[in-house]
Amino acid sequence: MISREQALAIARQWASAGRPGPEPEVELYEFDLGYVAWRVIPARPITHGPPAPPASTGYPNAVIDRETGDVSQWASLPAQLVAEQYRQHRAAEGRFPPDVRQVLDKAGWRPGRDATAAVNHWMRRFADELTGLECSPAARAALIEFGGLRLPQFGDDDDLGGGFTSFIHPTLGGVATEGAREFVEEFNNPVYPIGNNEDGPSELVVDAQGRVFMLHWADDFFVGPDIDSAIVKLIRGGPMAEASDLDWQT
């Protein structure tokens, strides 16, 4: 366990890394999982004439883990908010494999992400096109957490850029619903569009049980039993079962 004194020493080392001069002053905010640290910027003396620019703008915070002493860098936000984001980050550990989590983090996802305002605006904007398609709680939850993300797929050489990118609504441009309506009619299984994929291009839809499907011109494919599994598949790539092969009684 890291004591407050040890956390201060770690924070001073973090704040002075790569910065010449005397050791900077730091402050700590203690919470259940560790300490939020930030550098204290000395106040500039009051002088006559036009005001000088601030010495530092948006200097990041750090979180020092209470158990391990590991340091991670966070945005310049109030300490209480950083602490809550760190709690969410720790709670989500193990939810996605590290390679997928790296793509999600780069795309702008974070635990507890909430795109409600953007999703509501998108649903109002395309209300006519979406008429008759029921947005289940599972579909809405997927949109709220992942809406607006661009998720590239790994290529054959395990590097980004070689595969097909998925775009989660709301996206720029319109919304395609023809495939979703045909899917509902064929399988008697209501679905709601949550995005699209460059392959085809294809529609990505979610049913009331949270299952994700890709509606491609060649066939309808089962991506995953839930949004998390589907995101792993979309980012990693790989074969997908045809929707017609599913036992729809389960």
From TrEMBL:
Matching Pfam families: SUKH-3
Entry superkingdom: Bacteria
Name recorded for this polypeptide: SUKH-3 domain containing protein
The organism of origin for this protein: Micromonospora craniellae
Organism classification: Bacteria, Bacillati, Actinomycetota, Actinomycetes, Micromonosporales
